[in-house]
Amino acid sequence: MTPLTDAEVEALGSGDIVVRDDAFGAALGLQTREVLAAWLASGRLDPAGVGRDGRITEVRRDLTAWVDPGEPGLAEAFARFEQLRGMLASDLRIGLHRFAVQAACYREGAWYRAHLDAFRGDPSRVVTAIWYVNPDWTPADGGSLRAWVPGGTREVEPRLDRLVLFLSERVRHEVLPAHRERFALTAWFRGAEAVPLLPDP
Questions:
Q1: pLDDT in tens, 102-125
Q2: 106-126 burial string, b = 16+ CB within 10 Å, else e?
Q3: Cα gap 168→130, rounded to integer Å
Q4: Topology of the domain covering 6-47+57-190
Q5: How do residues 63-87 score in pLDDT, each as one tens digit?
Q6: CA 37, CA 133: separation in Å to the nearest integer?
């Protein structure tokens, strides 16, 4: 994976998104999609919730599951996110100590309302990385990521092996209704955890 360019670093810092095609490899993307489709068929993906308690709301309609590092069929994709973590930490000169990966499926008609991935000042989520694994995607399939960036909005189709990066607390975004099954892996790269204050003795 090639380092971020100066223009990409500047874009992230300004609250824009970075879009890279041919990110992890189309073959790996197809393999990953097969695994996620099997998860969907077996009922492993659950209705997504919002917040730390995972409550179900009217905000989103996707199905999700967390991905473990050694997950059969997804270990290589997880390793690519680890490589990405190191690259981002180096190129952005910020501490990204760990990350979590979530699989998501949007069935026909599913959406996710506009939101931020982290609250301002929250050290837990710093950078969001979304990797799409949808072959032969067309504009008619819907499901684009709409992001609010300086100067307006950008819409990104969830095409096979496309990677989208942005700062988690800066970029408001939504997923427009999908018209066919839409799969992705999202990684949230985290900074240092906040240290709780101890009570006075």
A1: 999 999 999 999 999 986 666 679
A2: beeebbbeeebbbeeeeebbb
A3: 11
A4: Jelly Rolls (2.60.120)
A5: 999 999 999 999 999 999 999 999 9
A6: 11
